[in-house]
Amino acid sequence: MESRVLSRATTLSSLPTLNKLHRLPLANASLLAVKTIGSLSDGGNLVWGRQLRPELCSPLLKKGPSLLRPCLATAEGNDSAGEEKVAPVGFFSRYPALTTGFFFFTWYFLNVIFNILNKKIYNYFPYPYFVSVIHLAVGVVYCLVSWTVGLPKRAPIDGNLLKLLIPVAVCHALGHVTSNVSFAAVAVSFTHTVKALEPFFNAAASQFILGQSIPITLWLSLAPVVIGVSMASLTELSFNWLGFISAMISNISFTYRSIYSKKAMTDMDSTNIYAYISIIALIVCIPPALIIEGPTLLKTGFNDAIAQVGLVKFVSDLFWVGMFYHLYNQVATNTLERVAPLTHAVGNVLKRVFVIGFSIIIFGNKISTQTGIGTGIAIAGVALYSFIKAKIEEEKRQAKAA
């Protein structure tokens, strides 16, 4: 090992070190070799592009803990052969439960703020196609800036991966736009109640499109969801067909997004995947916004909004709603990657409860008793479905591991 390393990285000036190395006791020679390797070049303990593991420094280092300590110290840049450095335990590592709780809180907080600000914008600027474009545009700018500074480093993309991501992005764009059309047409709480039907569409697509067998228990758990949404829709004071149908189209779009996402599984990290999807979705959303709302926006839309709230507030509202949209989606991804499927299911259900509850409080939406009961039944059904599905997924995972 030493001859390979030294033949590529040392100079003639290091030959005296070799002579001394042969005259030293074997154990001390091993420690000196470790120090020499650590100071060969700017690459530190890199040998021919591969990181040198501590246990490979010398076979003798495996014989006792006293010999292992200097090697670890050298890897950390410490030249003292007798000192042992222990990496400090950070707050996040020491309190993992609090860390996960913080991620959930941040996810819910950003989601609630987005929904409230989004609805307030629609109260004086009812143009959901254009606002949807702003959501994605702010997120794309954020991703481009992040790539520029290297946080994260941009992952390369080729034609094959692009073909896989385009259907995902198209479904994401359609689902996002129709969700915003629903938000603009009806109360936020009602849109989220209708969107509670998304698990039903996911199960139906899995059964009839993907050919997967769905257990009868999952189908039964979806019955309260359908009943609850029906009860809430019949007596919802803000009900209109545009808001209801748009929310249903959003459910179908996000269901197909899930189907195409499974086909587009890749080794690329979720942050880069979401960035590419956002860029493609933005390109998809711009033409409909220009065709459907463009003429009205240029004629009266912008002027009316500026007359009501002023130019500065109008621009700042659009910027911040786009920023909160991107951040809550990004934090949601980071949060759900940290937890087990069951916790994931609980988190999604609680998020919907938070959004519905806060929207009713903030906007003072009046709901009938039947609407409230129907919403509660629908949320309970979603929770039951999520628990059963998470348990099934965990059993499958354990079976594969066995």
UniProtKB/TrEMBL annotation:
It comes from the Eukaryota. Signal peptide: none annotated. Keywords: Chloroplast, Membrane, Plastid, Transit peptide, Transmembrane, Transmembrane helix, Transport. InterPro entries: EmrE-like, Sugar_P_trans_dom, Tpt_PEP_transl, TPT_transporter. It is found in: Plastid, Chloroplast membrane. NCBIfam families: tpt (TIGR00817). GO terms for molecular function: organophosphate ester transmembrane transporter activity; phosphoglycerate transmembrane transporter activity. It holds the Pfam family TPT. It is a multi-pass membrane protein. SUPFAM superfamilies: Multidrug resistance efflux transporter EmrE. The lineage of its organism: Eukaryota, Viridiplantae, Streptophyta, Embryophyta, Tracheophyta. Residues 100-386 form the Sugar phosphate transporter domain. The chain crosses the membrane at residues 95-117, 129-149, 164-188, 200-227, 239-260, 272-293, 305-328, 349-365, 371-388. GO terms for cellular component: chloroplast membrane. This is Sugar phosphate transporter domain-containing protein.
